[in-house]
Amino acid sequence: MLTTRLATLADYADCARLFPELGVPDPVFTAEQFATRLLPRVVVAEADGRTVGYASWRLYGLTAHVVHVVADPAARRRGVGRALVGAVREHVADAGCSRWYLNVKRNNAVAIRLYQRAGMTVELESTSVQLPWAKVEELPRPAGPIGAFAPSPADDAAIAARFAIPVERVTAQRTRPGYVAAGVREGGVVAAFATFDPDYPGAYPFCATRPDLARPLLEALQPHALPDRGETLFVSVEGNAPLAGVLVDAGARVLFELYRMSAPL
Fold first, then answer.
1. CA 189, 100, 96, 31 torsion: positive or negative?
2. Exposed/middle/buried for residue 94 (C-beta within 10 Å: 0-12, 13-18, 19+)
C-alpha cells in the first residue's frame, strides 16, 4: 500500500539517497540543510515499509513553489509521483495558497503529463547554464552608467514589481542563510537582481532588464565566490531568452532547459 506523510529529520538519509534522481548538478543537501532549508515542508511516500519518494516545497505568501518531486526508480509506475503531487497540493491548499508552480525539464515528458493531470500548464521557459567565472569579462559592458548595490528590505517591493516575482520570494531569497543578494540600478531604478549561494555555487533567480546587465550583476557576486568551490557557477534564468543567450554566447554551457508550470489552487 502506498501512503504519504510529512517528513521528519529521521527521513534525511532516505531523501538524500533519492535526491540524485533529480539529475541536477546541485550537491546533495546535508542533514543540517535538510533540517533548516527543507523541513517542515517535505512529504515522503512509503510502500511496503520503505521510502519510495519525497517532495518538498516553499511558500512565498499565497504562492507555493514545489521544489523537488522524486520517485525511486524501483517504484516508478506505481503512482508515487501522483501521490506526492496530491499530498503537496493538499498541504499548500491547507496553508491558504492560491497558486502553485514548479520547474520541469522540457524533455521529461512523463513528469509533464503528471503535472498536466494536476491541472498545471506551461507559464514560461527557463534555462540553466554553467558559466566559468573567467568568462564574465567576455560579457558585453552596459551601454550606460549603472551602479551595483546590496538589496535591503526597502528594495524588496521594487525588485518584485520590476521582475514580476512575489515580494515574499524576494525577501525569502535575500534573507536565506548563507546566500548573498546583489542588484544593479540604472538611473536610480532597479535594473538587475540575483541571489547567490556560494556553497553551490549558483545564482537564482538571475534577473536583468537587458542582457548587457549580466556582467555587472555577476561582477557584484564574484567577490563572494569561495575558492574551494571551483571556477564555475550555475545560473538559472527564468523567462528571459536574451539574457540566457548572452551567457551562452560568452561561453556558458547549457545544462538543461525547463518549463515553469503553474495552476491556481
1. negative
2. exposed
Our CA angle for 208, 227, 244, nearest 5°, is: 25
The answer to whether 196 and 180 are in contact (CB under 8 A) is: yes
The one-letter amino acid code at 122 reads V
- Domains and their CATH numbers in the chain: 2-97 (3.40.630.30), 127-259 (3.40.630.30)
Indicate the pTM of the whole model. 0.92
SS3 state of residue 30:
coil
The x, y and z cell numbers of residue 34, run together, are 535538510
Per-residue pLDDT tens digits for 237-247? 999 999 999 99
CB atoms within 10 A of CB 14: 18
Question: Is there a contact between 192 and 235 (Cβ–Cβ < 8 Å)?
Answer: no
Integer-rounded Cα Rg, in Å, for the chain is: 19
Question: Residue 77: is its pLDDT beyond 90?
Answer: no
Distance in angstroms (rounded) separating the CA atoms of residues 22 and 29:
13
Name 237's bridge partners: 127
Task: With CA atoms as reference, report the closest residue to 100 among 60, 57, 64.
Answer: 64
Query: In terms of DSSP H, where are the helices of the chain?
Result: 12-18, 31-33, 80-94, 109-117, 156-163, 167-175, 214-221, 241-249
With b for 16 or more beta-carbon neighbours within 10 A and e for fewer, the 207-243 pattern comes to bbbbbbbbbbbbebbeeebeeeeeebbbbbbbbbeeb
